[in-house]
Amino acid sequence: MIRVQAAYALAGLVFAGVAIASAADRANPRRWRNAAFWGLFAVSFLLGDRLGDAGNGMLVLALVVIGGFGLGQGGAVSTSAAEREATATRLGGRLFLPILIVPATALIGSLAFKSLRIGGQPLVDPAQVTVISLALGVLVAFAAAMILLRPPVSAPFQEARRLLDSVGWAAILPQLLAALGGVFALAGVGRAVGELFGHWLPLGDRFALVAAYGIGMALFTMIMGKAFAALPVMVAALGAPLLVGRFGGDAAAIGALGMLCGYCGTLMTPMASHNIVPTALLGLPPGAVIRAQAPTAILVLLANLALMSVLAFPHGHP
Amino acid sequence: MWSLLGVPVLLIGLVARLNPLIVVTAAALVAGLAGGMAPLALLAAFGKGFNDARYVSVALLILPVIGLLERAGLQAQARRAVERLRAVTTGRLLLAYFALRQLTAALGLLSLGGQASMVRPLIAPMAEGVAETRLGPGTAVRAVLIRAHAAAADNIGAFFGEDIFVALGSVLLIKAVFHQNGVAVDPLRVAFWAIPTALVALAVHGARLLRLDRTLSQDGAP
User: ipTM value of the model?
Assistant: First the structure.
């Protein structure tokens, strides 16, 4: 059976290649720092399951220290604008082909791999079909790009290095936020917030509770950078005991709309990698992506509160 | 109760614009220690959370392919491809991508889009190329506005589409969280309840993208 570890091993090899390309990048004044960062990230993908939890903890702390002090920007070892125009003219629409292979393979894979069995064993771990299909799609697209473009052998790693330099430390933020959510849950932050709200909120008013829950989801997501981390806190504090328990709200609606209020927060926070990564990748000033998103986020948040008040309580007024 | 101290750490870091890696780690350490976790157990929980979430970073695998294609002029080709289409405006192009992103996300096909795999190599250069064809060369301010809207279309489309798909992590998380609190939830009904918000987002953001054309032509006027 192909497990998700195969995709992790592939990612580990790419990051290891980027670490080597970083070490060799004399245009980068902090090249050793970059090399150490991507090298450790490669170790996490190649050996993460053998390091043990505490070992992984040490590895994360090292990544945070190196990334927190700031990585360097390497040289742009790439082609000139004129060369790019020339190859684009020669290849035309064929340049789009490898990009389209990735979603096509991911789509076919996630449909086909679920039922594909060899000797009674599923060929691909059914729980991880999406991730494995994505990695497979990238492999096929990579082969197609190498055949189509015939670049030097070092080019894929140099180009990955160039793009990862622009993403920088933000590359590990999604995983770090997931780890933070786990620690908050273990430390009982959700229960504590619930107790706090119990002291300060007018718990008798249904609309005030809906607003506190929805806006709380958005604000907590803005602070935590991730709606997944905010949801357990707000559901334990208000959603389950009060909105569902006391006021008879529909748990499916309260849960779905609460999460979507959280997404409105994600669109507005500088903590979310969804905003940090495109800011880096598109060379934008800080805040530009958030400014483009905020009006929609605020209007959708208000709509969510209205939908929740009107539709989520099928039994009318208490 | 003391575990709450992790929250102000995040807040201070956010306001002071400190490096988020340091802020997040400090918040986890403070919340864990103040909440009574043993230091070694805290370190292990933090490491395990990071290790278990490696699947989110597999999306970075696409970067070598994108880089190779950019090296061969992918972005230039993306601009050219839309220059011939006369009915296309920046707002309409982004609206089409946004609606398609929302629809495919609702069908569980999140990997069809993405900032690294679609927006940077294709959507942003196309949107800029269209503006240049229609309105002539623009300022740096215009380029920033268009690129930021290209990124926003991807995020907003994905966020307000994906929860309609039942097998997605977030729907299953909602079920699990309510289960922990002693409430049974049917994932199908959670997915159903993501539909009204998806329609609101389509209307609101669609209208904003069409208005973007007006903003651009006003700014682009000589």
Answer: 0.90
